[in-house]
Each structure stands twice: as C-alpha cells, then as structure tokens.
Amino acid sequence: MAYEFKNSRGVSYFLHSKDVNLKGGRLQTIYFFARDVRPGALNEVPAAYKVIETTKTGMPILKKK
C-alpha cells in the first residue's frame, strides 16, 4: 500500500520516488507526490524526511528533519 497524505482540503496524495541521471552523470533519487498511485510508489516516508503541507496550495512536500 502506497503512503497516503490527506491535506487540510481533503485531497489525497501518494508518495513516489524516481532515480534520475543528472548532467554530470550522477544518479539521484527524487521524491514527489501524485494524486494517483503510479509505478515507484513508496510504502513509507524515508527516515531522514518528514511531510509538511504548503500553506498557499495545500500540496504536501518532503522536508529533511
């Protein structure tokens, strides 16, 4: 089951991760939220992060602890 975050407006978002190649050739993992479950969905928040909600749009974002 994918990690689900329900914001203050009642909209559900699911946490995903994806490995991307940067211009210098370095591989980096990015985390993002989507309204639907896609390939790469995570079951829990990574240990070094916490989920917060932006005040303007209500979108969830990951922030380092």
Question: What does this entry look like structurally?
Answer:
This protein is mainly β. It has one domain (4-64). It has no helices and 5 strands. Strands 1-2-3 form a 3-stranded antiparallel sheet, with no helix packed on it. Strand 4 and strand 5 form a beta hairpin.
Quick gist of this model?
With about 60 residues, the chain is an all-beta fold.
Task: Jot down its keywords.
globular; 3-stranded antiparallel β-sheet; 65 residues; 0% helix; mainly beta
Q: Sheet bearing the most strands, described?
A: 3 strands, antiparallel
Task: Give the domain tally.
Answer: 1
Total beta-strand segments: 5
Strand content: over 45%
Q: What topology, given as strand order, has the largest sheet?
A: 1-2-3
Radius of gyration: 13 Å
Number of helices: 0
Mean pLDDT: 94
What is the subunit organization of this protein? Answer: single chain
Order of helices and strands: EEEEE
Return the structural class: mainly beta
Shape estimate: globular
